[in-house]
Amino acid sequence: DIVMTQTPLSLAVTPGQPASISCKSSQSLLHSDRKTYLYWYLQRPGQPPQLLIYEMSNRMSGVPDRFSGRGSGTDFTLKISRVEAEDVGVYYCLQSIQLPPTFGQGTKVEIK
Amino acid sequence: QVQLQQWGAGLLKPSETLSLTCAVYGGSFSIYYWSWIRQSPGKGLEWIGEINNSGSTNYNPSLKSRVTVSVDTSNNQFSLNLRSVTAADTAVYYCARRYGGFDSWGQGILVTVSS
């Protein structure tokens, strides 16, 4: 299985300040079709995960543009340009280039 | 806008079979894989398995010997059976739609295994 490793595991951010979460995969997620099969999710308490970013850098419809994703074949970053109160929760990365799809262990984001 | 609604028993005894069903409302049923994912404090988010409308399945090797995912295309539903459950199977179980990533999820059901 592809191992997804996120850092940090927790993050406390002042509203209006930026935040950055790293995700590293044990194998390249760059497919021969030139897509990178890396996804970012936010899970708020009591809710299922919500897809924010697909194929490494594409925002889902309705996701604020303060969220952005970038990376290479094995190293990925989710950036929040200016954290707002509604951004609190646990962020997960996911790979789906290879079965079984595997998630990172999660990064808990809190407001200072 | 697709909606996934799931149901099933929330309390099981060890050795029983976990059975959950997920109904899909809206959107196409035919071009996606329909997945089951669980979340427990100890193991985080774990993909269990999936099925498409043709009945083609994929399973997580860690659970494959105990899992069956089936589909009812006439009602746009799919189901999960997990046999011989133990306390380690206690988790919130989600159904989800997959096209690359999982872009739509059910509300989740807490399944507790306890004697």
Written account of the structure:
The complex is a heterodimer of chains A (112) and B (115). With 112 residues, chain A is mainly β. Chain A contains no helices and 11 strands. The mean pLDDT of chain A is 97. In chain A, strands 2, 4, 5, 6, 9, 10 and 11 form a 7-stranded mixed sheet that branches. In chain A, strands 1-3-8-7 form a 4-stranded antiparallel sheet, with no helix packed on it. Chain A is 0% helix and 47% strand. The relative contact order of chain A is 0.34. In chain B, the strands form 2 sheets. In chain B, strands 2, 4, 5, 6, 9, 10 and 11 form a 7-stranded mixed sheet that branches. A 4-stranded antiparallel sheet of chain B has the order 1-3-8-7, with no helix packed on it. Helix content of chain B is 0%, strand content 57%. Chain B is globular, with a radius of gyration of 13 Å. Chain B is mostly beta strands and 115 residues long. The model of chain B has no long low-confidence stretch (mean pLDDT 96). The chains are: A mainly beta (112), B mainly beta (115). The interface between A and B is medium-sized, with 20 and 19 residues.
Number of strands of chain B: 11
Q: Outline the biggest β-sheet of chain A.
A: 7 strands, mixed
Helix share bin of chain B: under 10%
* Category from helices, strands and their pairing of chain A: mainly beta
Backbone shape of chain A? globular
Ends of chain B: how far apart?
40 Å
Largest sheet of chain B: 7 strands, mixed
Proportion of beta-strand residues of chain A: over 45%
Oligomer: heterodimer
Sequence of secondary-structure elements of chain B: EEEEEEEEEEE
Residue stretches of chain B low in confidence (pLDDT < 50, at least 5 long) are: none
Q: Give the averaged pLDDT of chain B, no decimals.
A: 96
User: How many distinct helices of chain A?
Assistant: 0
User: Which chains have the largest interface?
Assistant: A-B, 20 and 19 residues
Task: Return the string of H and E elements of chain A.
Answer: EEEEEEEEEEE
Helix content of chain A: under 10%
